[in-house]
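Ticket closed. Logging final result for Replication initiator protein RepSA.
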Amino acid sequence: MTDTATMAGLDPATLADVLRVAGSPGFDRIQEQIRRTGGCSDPIHLQGSTVTRDAITGTVLHSYSTETEPGGRLRVACGNRRASRCPACAWTYAGDTYHLIRAGLVGDPDKGTPHTIRDHPRVFATLTAPSFGPVHNRPGNRPCRCGTRHGEDAPELGTPLDPATYDYDGAVLWNNHASELWRYFTIYLRREIAKRAGLTQKAAKEQSRVSFGKVAEYQKRGAVHFHAVIRFDGPNGPDDPPPAWATLALLTDSIRAAAARAAVDVPAAGDQPARTLHWGTQLDVQPIGAFGHGQEITEQAVASYVAKYATKAAETTGTVDRRVGNKEALVLLGVPDHPRRLIETCLDLHALYPDRKLRDWAHMLGFRGHFSTKSRRYSTTLGALRQTRADYRAAQQREALGLPDPDDEEATTLTLAHWSYAGHGHTPGESWLAANIRRDIQHNREIAREALADLRSEGVHDHE
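Final structure:
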């Protein structure tokens, strides 16, 4: 347990609970449970039991019940992807996203992509929202339009120069329809590819496939934009080489043309005029260089960048990370003026567009899509990565208990389990303990990462 010096700053109630937990008979097991969750901030509590029997003789080979656990409960990780909610689970989610994206760039046979995927044309594209009014920014070496040279962390960055004329309605509706705009972009992308290849859409589909993995990110002004890895494959996916006509230049030109064509119509409602939503003019498309070829945008950098933003959401703009019931709550929560106005706009527009669920997604500034998505054949799935991890841990547990592998044809075991939800979260003292365990785990990971970097700098490389 962390030394007493670090407990000095605790409030009396938390300190009292830390001492209570530390002095409880089941403290060692509580600590072990929290460590097994990685220091999860809001673990799920389960009650139940599991029994493994020999299917032929009925002999009990192993049994477990939460009745022997402290408080009669077992803690499991919450699995929340948001770093603002649970840094521990968000770290795992970011790691999974990194391996998912990386597998679609460098290849990983265990994750459904061959190493020859590196020879396929692929780009890193960023599609942004249009302007809804001038905002404070840092335009290179020039001062902002307000005449000030803002610092990198200046709080006014991204806020409107004139809030009275800023199109808050347009900003919220754009966020709300951004996922549909992406869907239309992918439709037009395939059409533009066929057009430039001189083929019908059917013929182009029979000869090639476009795969992608993307992540959503909020700009400081509160508008969503997308970062995407877009790749050419053969008709059967990553195992197939793309046809000769499927070049990097053709892919790049097609992306630019598709982004220009994609549009979503929003009907008029109440005092709101009809709108046609488009992508912004700041479209960035850059080729991804294979490892060791010297290109500026590397596979490692792209995978790391996408993983970084997979655990972030609208709270990076100053809003909150959970639903807001009414406008009065925004004052109590201390939400800054610009995100507060965006949230208020969501609440106001909900009555005009009830099917868009703007009230439910007001804390997300209107955005209601998934933050990390991919096409079916890009690479593996997050679910598959989680299952692999679960299978590995289960195999470790079976080996420790001396139980046979259930996949073994000669195995004759039968496992019966019953679980029920029994709550979630920590007491104040457990929460403090979990935070310290999480920091220790993170520190150990950083040491291991630095050691690996040192080995690589000395010429020792891991196999791709």
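The CA atoms of residues 185 and 259 lie 6 Å apart. No further action required.
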